[in-house]
Amino acid sequence: METEVLIVGAGPAGAAASALLSTYGIANVVINKYPGVSNTPRAHITNQRGVEVFRDLGLEGEVIKNATPQHLMGEHVYATSLAGRELGRLRTWYTHPHFKAEHDLASPSAVCDLPQHILEPILLNAAAARGSSVRFNTELLTFTQDDDGVTATVKDRLTDGRYEIRAKYLIGADGGNSAVVEQLGLPLVGKMGLGGSINVVFEADLSRFAEHRPGDMYWFIQPGVGHDGNGIGVLRMVRPWTRWIGVWGYDVAAGEPSLTEADGIRIAHQLIGDDTVPVKVESISTWAVNDVYATDNMKGRVFCVGDAVHRHSPMNGLGSNTSMQDSYNLCWKLMMVLRGQAAPSLLDSYREERLPVAKQIVQRAKKSDGLMPPLFMALRLPPASGAQALRDALDALDAPTPEATERRRDFDAALRATIMGFNTHGVETNQHYTSGAIVSDGTPDQVAPRDEEIYHFATSRPGRHLPHVWVTRDQHRVSTFDLCGRGRFTLLTGINGAAWRDAAELVSKRFGVPLRVHSIGRGCDYEDSYGDYQTMSETGEDGVLLIRPDHMVAWRAASLTEDPEATLAEVMAKILGR
Ligand code: FDA
Question: What's 71-110+190-292+370-424's CATH class?
Answer without folding.
Answer: alpha beta
